[in-house]
Structure formats: C-alpha cells, structure tokens
C-alpha cells in the first residue's frame, strides 16, 4: 500500500469507527441494579430470593448478564435496617426491594429510588403510600393486610376447639407503635367476637421471646396466634418450639409455620408472591413510576394443617376440617 492509499484507508476507517463504536455500544445490554433488604437471615430468605430471581428471569433479567442484585440481611435485628439501607442506596440501585419494615428504612433514606414491596401488612397505615390505588410516592408492590387475617386465625381455632375460652396473641415488638396497635386491635376484636379472654405478649428477639413464653406458661392460654412479620419469620422455629413445650396449639401466616412444626398456617403463598413481585420491578425498569402503579392485594390464601404436630399435642383434627385444607402434612 502506497502513501496515498494509506491516507485514504485511514480516512475511511476514521469515518466509520465512530458509527461502529456506537453500534457496539447499542448492542451491549444495559445492566440494571436491584438492592434487596431483608429482615431475616440469608438462610431463611433463600427460597424467597430464589423465587424473586425466577420471576426476574421470566422477564429476561439474568444475573451476571443484564442484572446485578445486592442483598443485605439484618438477621432479625431491625435496628440494623437504617444502616443497611444506606449501604444499598450508596450502590445507586435502579430499584430497591423490601417488605414493610425494611421499606420504611429505605424510604426514610431516599425519596427518589423506587421501592417495591414483596409483602406489606398495610402500606397506607405504615406511611409508605398515600393509597393502594394511587401510591403517590416512590413505593409500590404487594399488600396482604396481614393483621386482618388474625380474625380468620381465631375463627379456625374456635372451630377446632369449640370449648376454648382463653387465647394468646404474640405481637412483634420491633414494629412501630401504630402497627403494633393495629395487630392488637384486630386480635382483641376477634377474641371478643368469640367470647374469648385474650392474653397479649410481644417479642422482638430470642431473649424477649423466652420472656413472652414465660408469661404464657403462667397464664395458661389454650391456643396461640402469632403475628406475621419478617422478625417472626426469623424466629419461627423458636416460636414453634416454645408453643410445643407448653403444648399450645399455634397458628400464623408466617411462611413455613405449619411446615416447620406449627399446628396450622393460613395466609398467602409468599413464595409465589415473591416471584410475582418481579413484575413491578420489570415495569419500573422499563420506565413506569411507582407513584402510578397500584399496590396489589392477593385474593388467594393457603390453608395448611400439620397432622404430625396435632398428634404430638394429642389433638384429633376432624375430617371436615382437613378436607378444607390445601395441604396436610403427615
């Protein structure tokens, strides 16, 4: 190639290099960043996180390719949530994910990064959204109105134990005062409707849970309803063990409560819920504003009975009761 041909080649290459670089950049997929803040431990949250990732894969988001997910775990200590929320926000995620209590910590730290709720008892009462239909904030997702299920729990226990007169309710002391009162109010109303006396106890960690069961040992209620929270998911085996020690039939919407040895669980299928909530993240990553995405509520609940636990407690479960169960654990 002579000097003239070289000059022509370099000019032609320079003229096309810019468009080629632009084309290469256009073909490189954008990597989105999602930050997840969990109340519980990595071990407890693994099936829920995997379900969420499956939902993201359903929508074309693949970790290591076009998706980065950062996790932070409070391991049951809700006092750590504000610091963990700040850690995640410093990573500049496109979307944050967390249930009601972590979401409050994240919302306190940012009003601009979208926050998606995989689960919430009442996001309006928690101050996360203005209304379910029009959130009006940087928060949206799923609401299960979990405290309202306490009435169903009391109804099921009353049906199973028609001569029962004393009921206990275990509340989560790590919740903000207004939310605790919401749970207690529902429990009181449900107990009164069935003519039951109510013993109220609360816990926020293993130590206070032992104290709560010490109170129950003295009060001798005939059954127990446990609130459904991230803290109690982390403590669920200790709750189940404490109830078993006192030979106390227990019910909750805590995920895996009956599976892990509780007598009954009645509530949403949270595993499926975590997969579905990826649809909110997808919409936001494609440009939707959380303020305009209605908070959704599930209409499907799962009823699980653990017959092995019933036998250990000396309880006979009527066939009419079992026929209505979605799942019976032998």
In short:
The protein contains 13 helices and 13 strands. With 330 residues, the chain is an alpha/beta fold.
Fraction of residues in H or I helices: 40-55%
As a whole number of angstroms, the C-alpha radius of gyration is 25 Å
How would you characterize the largest beta sheet?
Answer: 7 strands, mixed
Roughly what fraction of the amino acids lie in strands? 15-25%
CATH topology of the largest domain: Rossmann fold
* Estimated structural class: alpha/beta
- Termini distance? 84 Å
**What is the element string, with H for helices and E for strands?**
HEHEHEHEEHEHEHEHHEEHHEEHHE
The dominant shape is elongated
Count of domain modules:
2
The CATH superfamily of the largest domain is identified as Response regulator
CATH class of the largest domain: Alpha Beta
- Strand tally, please? 13
Description:
This protein is α/β, with parallel strands linked by helices. The protein folds into two domains: 32-144 and 271-297, Response regulator (Rossmann fold), CATH 3.40.50; 146-267 and 301-329, Response regulator (Rossmann fold, 3-Layer(aba) Sandwich), CATH 3.40.50. 44% of the residues lie in helices and 18% in strands. It has 13 helices and 13 strands. The protein has helices at residues 3-27, 42-58, 81-90, 100-109, 149-160, 177-193, 206-219, 230-234, 236-245, 270-276, 278-285, 307-312, 319-323; strands spanning 32-38, 67-73, 95-97, 115-117, 139-143, 166-172, 197-203, 223-226, 250-252, 264-267, 296-297, 302-306, 327-329. The chain has a seven-stranded mixed beta sheet, sandwiched between helices. A six-stranded parallel beta sheet has the order 2-1-3-4-5-11, with helices on both faces. It is elongated. The chain starts with a helix and ends with a strand. Residues 6-13 have low confidence and may be disordered.
